[in-house]
What we know:
Elements: E1 3-8, H1 13-17, H2 21-29, E2 32-37, H3 40-47, H4 57-74, H5 90-102, H6 107-119, H7 128-137, H8 149-166, E3 173-176, E4 180-183, H9 188-195
Parallel strand pairs: 1-2
Antiparallel strand pairs: 1-3, 3-4
Amino acid sequence: MAHIDYYFVAISPWAYLAGNRLEQLAAKHGATITYKPADFARVFAGTGGKMLNERHPARQDYRLQELRRAQVKTGLPLNIHPAHFPANPAPASYAIIAAQAAGGGDVGALVQNVLRACWAEDKHIADDAVIRDCLSRAGFDPGLADTGLLSGAMTYEANAEEAINKGAFGSPFYIVDGSEKFWGQDRLDDLDAYLAGNL
């Protein structure tokens, strides 16, 4: 059985545009997933990348065009200029980490709820009420937003260090069985083919 480590930042539009395809592929191929929200400021710094506001205007402009095209291709609702972006992804990431550890709900749905809150619902993902709502709708105790903050912060930083050490450098990033790497939601077809043994 294949295992997928999924590294992402909880405010990534590209992770949002993956929708639930990762979960569908995992179910199709009998694979398991570990969700690893990470501090991508550290990941970028450790792998030669730059935060969005540090990139050349030409790269920023191209990103907006790609987002528009990706939205059309996926059919997912997307506001390319959301009301609360950038926002601190750490509190939502801590909640995702706590929920995964606690169990009892759907972690994939929780991740999608957080991403959708920013990119389709114009909500502030660092707001406690928004995080609690995302948890509740994914079948988790909303009180997880208030527990495990220290361990969540430690795991969040550890995920960033692990991402750097394993060669992940963007969001979303999928690593199968510790070695086969796929960067971006537009590589999910390749991930599908790999899990099927065709790539």
